[in-house]
Specification:
The chain has 154 residues and is an all-alpha fold. The chain is built from five helices and no strands. It is 78% helix and 0% strand. It is elongated and about 90 Å long.
């Protein structure tokens, strides 16, 4: 993954392609008798969070609204998987077409996208402040010039 300021496009694409696999895995984990009720409940709670219109960042906010959902879902899946014996954990992952490395990579990708969004927002904010200062300065000069002309006419 790039550490610079570019959007992690390839990693994001890989994450999107794995979403159906995560849905299958979450469904299997929510119904897995090898898991404690707490770990199954965590997966179900994460699923409810993902589909709920009420969450930290609403889904109508492009990308950011889905990032928090992805972090919650991946965190719950990871938590549930930790409750399984290693051989059964790998079997569950393989059945869903995933690996533990996929989960780690996708968590890293969501963090990288969040950092990219924060850097972008800061950059946009700085640009907006600069533009506002420019406009404010020109407006201030125009008002002062106009006021000076009026005073000169009296």
């Amino acid at each position: 993954m790039e550490s610079g300021g570019a959007f992690p496009r390839e990693e994001f694409g890989a994450l999107l392609r794995r979403l159906p696999n995560y849905a299958r895995l979450a469904w299997a984990l929510a119904n897995d008798p090898h898991l404690s009720r707490v770990r199954r409940a965590a997966v179900l709670a994460a699923a409810a969070y993902v589909v709920s219109p009420i969450d930290l960042l609403p889904g109508i906010v492009p990308v950011a609204g889905q990032l928090d959902d992805m972090l919650v879902a991946l965190g719950a899946i990871r938590f549930a998987l930790q409750g399984l014996k290693p051989e059964y954990r790998f079997q569950r992952l393989a059945t869903a077409g995933l690996t533990a490395a996929d989960i780690d990579a996708d968590l890293q990708t969501t963090r990288a996208i969040a950092a990219w969004m924060a850097r972008s927002a800061i950059g946009i904010g700085r640009q907006a402040i600069g533009k506002a200062r420019d406009v404010g300065g020109r407006l201030g000069h125009a008002v002062a010039d106009r006021a000076g002309r009026r005073i000169g006419r009296r």
